[in-house]
Design a protein that fits this description.
By secondary structure, the protein is an alpha+beta fold. The protein has a nine-stranded mixed barrel with strand order 1-2-3-4-5-6-7-8-9. The longest helix has 23 residues. The N and C termini lie far apart (89 Å).
């Protein structure tokens, strides 16, 4: 028969320490809440967030466009949608731009109203950039591991990675800005807190609102309700914005085929039609 007291004192002490450590670890695991799993395919509920792209509703009293006479063809469509060419000005909840960057926006608007796609990055098959990418107009897939979360957009097959392993942006990263930028995140309870830096300055905040190389993006991502993912976004840019701009995007998780399948986006096939 085994007698605990027959063990040497040193061995007994080690056994007690190991037992206590196991109890502490098990207790910590039982009391800590598991991280939410964002994995899945989502479709946007409000792709424009709380801001209309390119300008809000027309002024009160603006007459509707006249219908063509019977038997006459419809007018050709414009190269950009009426609300995205800036012809109706900027909406009240659009980012407030400094004079220099408002002038940039006006120049882009003039080009788009004239029918040019020169300033349309998406039409050129380029990534939408951040934070515009998070509108996820055609849906997105989220792939999550312990150390990284990847957001994949069907639109132009764009993607971004959020690193959760504690890494920090290096000087080399700041010297090579990208469309998606460099994103790091951490958990605050069931909320993923993300900061994005090193963003190209030739992308747009939303619509075609320009920004500078100093822009940063802060996000708080969580399940607002079962199956509904919420992304609260704050954009800061001391050169381009009068004050930080905030918006909220929401997405609904798809539960089965065919809605949970993203399609290939062969954007380059249409490049010949862009001018």
């Amino acid at each position: 028969m085994f007698i605990w007291s027959s063990l040497p004192r040193s061995v007994s002490a080690i056994a007690v320490i190991v037992a206590i450590a196991l109890v502490v670890m098990l207790g910590a695991q039982s009391t800590s809440s598991p991280r939410p799993d964002f994995s899945g395919v989502y479709r946007p509920i409000n792709p424009f967030g709380n801001a209309a792209v390119g300008g809000g509703a027309p002024p009160a009293g603006t007459p509707a466009p006249a219908a063509p006479a019977p038997g006459q063809p419809l007018p050709p469509p414009t190269r950009t949608a009426p609300l995205s060419d800036g012809s109706r000005g900027r909406s009240a909840d659009a980012p407030q731009l400094t004079p220099t960057y408002l002038a940039k926006w006006q120049a882009i608007s003039k080009s788009r109203i004239a029918g040019s796609s020169e300033s349309d990055k998406v039409a050129q098959c380029l990534p939408p950039g951040m934070p515009l990418m998070m509108s996820m107009f055609y849906g997105m897939e989220v792939m999550q591991t312990r150390d990284k979360i990847t957001f994949f957009s069907e639109l132009n097959d764009a993607l971004r990675r959020v690193y959760l392993d504690g890494r920090k942006p290096t000087p080399a990263i700041f010297d090579d800005p990208t469309y998606a930028g460099f994103s790091t995140g951490s958990w605050e309870g069931d909320t993923l807190v993300v900061d994005t830096v090193a963003l190209r300055d030739d992308t747009y905040i939303e619509g075609f609102t320009p920004h500078s190389e100093q822009m940063t993006v802060h996000e708080r991502i969580r399940f607002a309700s079962p199956g509904v993912l919420e992304d609260r976004i704050v954009v800061s840019d001391p050169k381009a914005l009068v004050k930080p701009w905030q918006t909220v995007k929401t997405y609904r998780k798809m539960t089965g085929p065919p809605d949970d399948q993203l399609r290939e986006f062969a954007c380059a096939e249409g490049l010949g039609h862009v001018r």
